[in-house]
Each structure stands twice: as C-alpha cells, then as structure tokens.
UniProtKB/TrEMBL annotation:
<dbReference type="Pfam" id="PF03831">
    <property type="entry name" value="YjdM"/>
</dbReference>
<dbReference type="Pfam" id="PF08274">
    <property type="entry name" value="Zn_Ribbon_YjdM"/>
</dbReference>
<dbReference type="InterPro" id="IPR013988">
    <property type="entry name" value="YjdM_C"/>
</dbReference>
<feature type="domain" description="Protein YjdM N-terminal">
    <location>
        <begin position="3"/>
        <end position="32"/>
    </location>
</feature>
<feature type="domain" description="Protein YjdM C-terminal">
    <location>
        <begin position="47"/>
        <end position="113"/>
    </location>
</feature>
<dbReference type="InterPro" id="IPR004624">
    <property type="entry name" value="YjdM"/>
</dbReference>
<dbReference type="InterPro" id="IPR013987">
    <property type="entry name" value="YjdM_N"/>
</dbReference>
<comment type="similarity">
    <text>Belongs to the YjdM family.</text>
</comment>
<protein>
    <submittedName>
        <fullName>Alkylphosphonate utilization protein</fullName>
    </submittedName>
</protein>
Length: 113
C-alpha cells in the first residue's frame, strides 16, 4: 500500500512525488509534500473540558450545568458524574453512558474529575 496521498482536488490515487511537490497526472494539480504531512497532524485534535484540561478516552467527568435533552423531557443535572467517556469526532465530542441512557455531549459542559 502506498503512503502517497490521493489528490485533494479530484480524489484520484495516481499521484506521485516530484521534487518538493506531489503531482496528480489526471487533473495536473500540484501541492507541497510538507502540507500533506501537516494535514495528518491536524487530524489529531485535542479535546479540552470547560477548564482547559485535555480529555482522553476512559476519563471521568462531571457536568457543570443542567442540560435539557432535545426531544425528551429528560434533564441531565449539574454535578452528575460520568465514568469512562469516549472521544469522537464532530460537534459533540464526548460519547458517554449514564443511567438515563447514552448521550453525545459537548466538552465545554464537562469538567474532568
């Protein structure tokens, strides 16, 4: 399997390195090799809680405010402890299980314990 990335413009995989750039022979797009390396590093996003502490899979957190669950009458109360969270991509970064069910929460409403 090749480590050369697909073309970001046409998504074809016929790319090849040429000096300081990758080149796509299908659409003639060229882009720097260093930009492709930094894009891989940008994928590793750090999720931080309300106080700025980095969160990791398996951490325990506490809710810092009451959260109403959209589409139901459930309210998640402030101070509720959530054990062994899982970090996921997207707007709601934290996936967790509580007594009320499974929820996707924003990290800005959580504090690391």
């Amino acid at each position: 399997m090749s480590t050369i990335p697909a073309c970001p413009q046409c998504a074809m995989e016929n790319t090849y390195p040429d000096g300081e750039n990758y080149v796509c022979p299908d659409c003639a797009h060229e882009w720097p090799i260093t930009a492709a390396a930094s894009a891989d590093e940008a994928d590793e996003r750090v999720v931080k809680d309300a106080n700025g502490n980095p969160l990791a899979d398996g951490d325990a957190v506490v809710l810092i405010k009451d959260l109403k669950v959209k589409g139901s009458s459930i309210t998640l109360k402030m101070g509720t402890k959530v054990k062994s969270i899982r970090l996921v991509g997207g707007d709601h970064e934290v996936d967790c299980k509580m007594d009320a069910g499974n929820f996707m929460l924003k990290a800005e409403y959580l504090k690391k314990v």
